[in-house]
Model the fold of this input.
Amino acid sequence: MNIDDSEEKAKRHVRALIWLFFWLLVIEGALRKWILPQWSDPLLVIRDPVVILIYLYAIRARVFPRNGWIVVLAVLGFFSLATTFIQLWPYLPPSKIVLVGGFGFRSDFFQLPLIFIMARVLRPADLKKFGWWILIFLLPMTLLMVAQFRAPPDAFVNRTAGGGGEMMMSALGKVRTAGPFSFVVGVVAYYALATAYLIWAVLRKDVYKNWLLIAAGVALVIGISVSGSRSVVGACAMVVTSLLLVIFLRPDVVNRFGRALLVALILGFIVSRTPIFREGVNVLSARFSEVAGATDQSMTRGLIVRAFAVFGEGFSVLDKAPMFGYGLGVGTNAGAKFLTGHSVFLLTEGEWSRIFLESGPLLGLAYLVWRCAIVAWVGWLCAKSVKLGNLLPLLLFSASFLPMVSGQFGQPTILGFAVFVTGLALAARNEETSATSSAITAPPARLKSAERIVRRRSVYAARLHGPSAEHGQNNGSVGR
Done:
């Protein structure tokens, strides 16, 4: 076997492991709640061995990132872990420092290189297949959420991780449904991701069968209504709002909205007549009203304030944090359990304030600047893709940028989705490269002397919008 064959085989292993990462991300909560509740705590890190294998195969395939982003991340991770040992050494035995600091390191640094690996190994066909399974799995997930919504808070389907306790309450005696996840944060991330794929498939046409798009659309609306969570509404609304940027960058896309909007209105009218939707909306309305009454804020303002409050809270503790912080992992629930035996927030619940208190103002600020910078960079690349007619990267980015900026990485589900969806957003840009490469390598067609081709758009945009093509032209990854 030559070197090229060995590297390609390693890439196939990486792709297979990324699929395993995805499925473990989806079913981890079910394992911790219903199937293996006695192993709830170890299952928190069930995806970490998979990530290690991905890195090993990525090195063998020569796709492990060696760019400036990873160099800076490695330096920050090393110094943050080193200062953790210095800070905690007088107070804790080395074994506990390893456990607490190790969990903090895996929360803040360990999984982030996966973003770049996904961008290098996932092909357009892989992105399409991920979307198909995400929309398919949306159907049983919504049915499970409906069952949780209708069941009493102490029912088996509403158990929390570890097999005990009850889900968080929403309003009118209903729980915030978590589906197969440990907490509702999984539903927030998954439904935003499904919204991105659904909009992309509807606008692009012929990506998935119409029955899947209709079924997924109905499931999405019903799932949002029975979620009992403002965050689910806000996350899906954020993805839909990203279409405004699409229209600004590509005004010609408006022509494709008409049919999709008409179908959405018809489906919305039909779904709105169902009893489960009406009951779910009543609970959501009550939830929004309760919060608005308690905070004296409108629904829209309340969502905005909640999303950005983490930044103000973070800077409010900046002058209170020790120079090198209290140590990585101390502010996470898992770290607190190692230290006290109870899963609590020892420092603070907000992500930015946790990072400042754990790593100190210097390293903490540098790490947060890194996270904001990579979000800005990925967002810029996704906006450039829109100009080429590729909408999927921006839609996926709109589902991941807030978790990347301010999501609680100490919560494994949030971290997993932030990394996975950002990796998908970067990988979705590979279709542009694939289209350009196929155009460059394709043999020139014989043209009649009277025929002329006038190119006024990029190759990718021309393929997407349907230029006059030869009968033998294929559709790249979509045609396979």
Remarks:
- Confidence is low (pLDDT under 50) at residues 437-456, 467-480.
- The CA atoms of residues 156 and 434 lie 48 Å apart.
- The first helix runs from residue 3 to 35.
